[in-house]
Amino acid sequence: MKLFEIVTDEIQPEKYREAVVHPGAGAVTVFTGHVREWTKGVRTLYLEYDAYVSMAEKKMAEISEEVQHKWPETKIAIAHRIGKLKISDIAVVIAVSSPHRKHAYEANEYAIERIKEIVPIWKKEIWENGQEWKGDQRKKPLLEVE
Amino acid sequence: MITLYYFAGLRDKAGVDVEQVQLTGLKVRELLEYVSNKYEGFKGSLIHIAVNEEYALLDDIVKDGDVVAFIPPVSGG
């Protein structure tokens, strides 16, 4: 396995935990993001994820560099699944180890926020009566075509 | 020759996921105008552009052999 990867099969979180464990690690946080059935009153039947795979893996490696710059003794592994995912499937896993727990928690949250900002992965929600590609609505992207 | 990739909603609008075009020496801004005129629905869209897998600026120049990706707002996680 790679430490930063886009996968098409079911994510096994334990693999990523094991990948960051080492003798100096006193704490590991493992975050898994799952497919949610209800979003703002609308029922999702399933999701389809797409990615620019090569760039996505590169951007996840960059996030690791950012994390190690901010929390020098951490080690991180990230995987994101693409393709068709059903309710409760794991879409993303982030495992972070550090000597002490505080940094493992902080770095893990930082990593998921950065994934949502810079990693070229897209989610399509499929409902009973339609479907839509979702975009990050938290901030305005780089440019708008006029 | 440059390679253009389209993703997610932009791929749906373009109707293709990849194509090669004989355009070089253009600024990213000009390339964006080119595809916006070529395909319905690009105007008014929020788009990032990556050149060779790095986010590019509007004034960056696209060279022969470059791989350009049109990236709508991401929604991973």
UniProtKB/TrEMBL annotation, chain A:
Catalytic activity annotation: 2 [molybdopterin-synthase sulfur-carrier protein]-C-terminal-Gly-aminoethanethioate + cyclic pyranopterin phosphate + H2O = molybdopterin + 2 [molybdopterin-synthase sulfur-carrier protein]-C-terminal Gly-Gly + 2 H(+)
GO annotation terms (biological process): Mo-molybdopterin cofactor biosynthetic process
E.C. number: 2.8.1.12
Superkingdom of origin: Bacteria
Enzyme class of the recorded protein, top EC level: transferase
Single GO MF annotation: molybdopterin synthase activity
Annotated metabolic or biological route of this protein: Cofactor biosynthesis; molybdopterin biosynthesis
SUPFAM superfamilies named among the record's database cross-references: Molybdopterin synthase subunit MoaE
InterPro entries assigned to the protein according to its UniProt record, in alphabetical order: MoaE_sf, Mopterin_biosynth_MoaE
Pfam families linked to this entry: MoaE (PF02391)
Keyword annotations from UniProtKB, A to Z: Molybdenum cofactor biosynthesis, Transferase
Similarity annotation: Belongs to the MoaE family.
Subunit structure, interactors included: Heterotetramer of 2 MoaD subunits and 2 MoaE subunits. Also stable as homodimer. The enzyme changes between these two forms during catalysis.
Protein name: Molybdopterin synthase catalytic subunit
Organism: Ureibacillus xyleni
UniProtKB/TrEMBL annotation, chain B:
Pfam families: ThiS
A biological process term (GO) from this entry: Mo-molybdopterin cofactor biosynthetic process
Record-linked InterPro entries: Beta-grasp_dom_sf, MOCS2A, Mopterin_synth/thiamin_S_b, ThiS/MoaD-like
One Gene Ontology cellular component annotation held by this UniProt entry: molybdopterin adenylyltransferase complex
Keyword field: Nucleotide-binding
Any GO MF annotation of the entry: nucleotide binding
Family from the record: Belongs to the MoaD family.
Protein name, as recorded: Molybdopterin synthase sulfur carrier subunit
Species, as recorded: Ureibacillus xyleni
Lineage, opening ranks: Bacteria, Bacillati, Bacillota, Bacilli, Bacillales
